Amino acid sequence: MATRMSPQDRIMYPVDWLEERSGLIGAVRYFLFRRVPSDTNWFQTLGSATLTAFLVQATTGVILAMYYKPDPQEAYPSIVNITNDVFAGWLVRGMHRWGASVFIILMFLHMGRVFLFGAYKYPRELNWIIGVLLLALGLAEGFTGYLLPWDQTSYWATTVGININGSAPFLGPFIAQFLQGGTYINADTLSRFYAIHMLLIPGAIFALIGLHLYLVIRLGVTSPPWSKHPAGSGPTEPPPPAPPRTGLTRPAPRGGTIRG
Amino acid sequence: MAEDRIVERKRVFAQYKQDVKERGKPFYPYAMFHDTVMSLVVVIVIVGLAAIWKFTTPGHHTGFGPHGSTDVPNQAGWLGKLYDQPADPGTISFVPRPDWYFYFLFQLLRIFKWPDSVILGTVGIPTICLVLLIALPFIDLRSERRPSRRPVAMVAAVLAVLSMGILTYRGATAKEALASEEVTHVPSWAATEKFTKNKEAVAGARLFAQLGCLNCHTYLGQGNHNLGAPDLSAEGAKNKGIAFQIAHLKCPQCVNPGSQMIPFADQPTKNLTALATFLEASKGGK
To answer: Do the chains contact at B46 and A102, CB–CB below 8 Å?
Structure first.
């Protein structure tokens, strides 16, 4: 007869099954128990805080998409409906509206922290560049999302924004034309902004965040630069000196105890 | 020299990895605890802002259910209106405002006037900033990380934060000119463009200021250059004629297909003639 599984192995079989096929359990274990410098501090939570703000945007955005209608005739009434009639609609819309500001503030703060810590330097240059791209994409989300309520504020601010795009040399007029789907803001502009806002840019942001986190895990986080013993400076203490021999020729220090 | 640096920084990073291995702490639970607390704070702040936005808006707030509020678009709470009036491409008096994080761009638009230098302000400066940001790790090659030993980087950072802050603040507090203020420019326009004696043109200039033309157009440095409508200071130099100007005012799209301008067909003929005379009298002041 073949050897039988122990009860413990039997309980853990689903986990083992997944690990055997995907290696996911090992990856999660590596992620959780990897070592970080012992002097990492609260400033270094700004990155995960930014990620949280983005996840709030993604979640509330999906819920809003279930009620929002990207059509010039229906967009505004659907926003009014979400705000006043849908259960907790005001909360979801409010979280999305203000979460955008929080997300952008946190991106800037996180970037400031990385700059202050000099954490963009070797070997983390690539991750800094990905971060800059994420900042630009985040601002593009703010720009495209602003039009969607289709009220006076959003309509006219977007008119200005598209004209700014149009003023750029070479590609500017083409970008403006593409964004608008015509020579002025119309139904196509709204559906284009909607598609860019909820599919194109969020997809790119998800992908870049994945890469960003991969590089953080691969390269590790930096110690605060003002730390007494930042990681990279070598062992904390010099090797303990050999205990001095005390005896007849070398009296023990005053107040000290004589150790064998 | 460059090779020395590459060898040295490789050594420091190898030391970093060894140090972290030997005296680092595991991410879970130590760092993860901090991250979790901070993430909770973020979510609470976002929910709090949403609640403040909603519940400081005038109206009845009866909770989560249908008709949780009877707010009207024009009433603003502490954080502004829940929504504005519906979009109306035909409006002539709306002052565009982006969200706060674009105020700096908005302010750059004011500093660099349309159309001469606007490319510099709105495309040039942001592009340069973006390129500098991306290039930063390759400009600042030293491995020194202590702020006290990086005076150039620190001064540059303070200047960048200050200029962004000032631009954002000024963009937030800037006031757009009112039509009543714009009318006061009429005598100086007439003097510059030399149509002081042309009563019809002066009357047209007053109408031009009062009807909100400057919300989209510019004239001798006044008005809104954000919407990309043409500057009209030298419109008369094209010598298109009063009949054309009147036809254009009545139906811009009929004479100029694709035009975004709103029609002024509801104005009496007297006013249209005055406006057309004013435009034809505007030769750019040369």
So the answer is: yes
Contact A50, A103 (CB under 8 A): yes
- Which among B196, B218, B198 is positioned nearest to B208, based on CA atoms? B218
Mutate to test the interface with B, among A164, A183, A237 (most CBs of B within 10 A): A164
Nearest-CB residue to B87 (from A88, A155, A230)? A155
Which residue of chain B has the CA closest to A136?
B130
Chain A contact for B12 (CB, 8 A cutoff): yes
How high is the ipTM of this complex?
0.87
3-state per-residue secondary structure call for B229-257: CCECCCHHHHCCCHHHHHHHHHCHHHHCC
Residues 6+ apart with CB under 8 A from A132: A111, B130, B133, B134
pTM here is: 0.83
Percent of chain B with pLDDT over 70: 87
- pLDDT (tens digit, 9 = 90+) per residue, A19-48? 999 999 999 999 999 999 999 999 999 999
Q: Helix (H) and strand (E) counts for chain A?
A: 11, 1
A125 CB neighbours in chain B (<8 A) are 137-138
Q: Please state, in angstroms and rounded to a whole number, the distance separating the CA atoms of residues B150 and B18.
A: 26
Per-residue burial over A222-239, b if 16 or more Cβ lie within 10 Å, else e, is bbbbebebbbbeeeeeee
- Quickly state the pLDDT bin for A4 (edges 50, 70, 90): confident
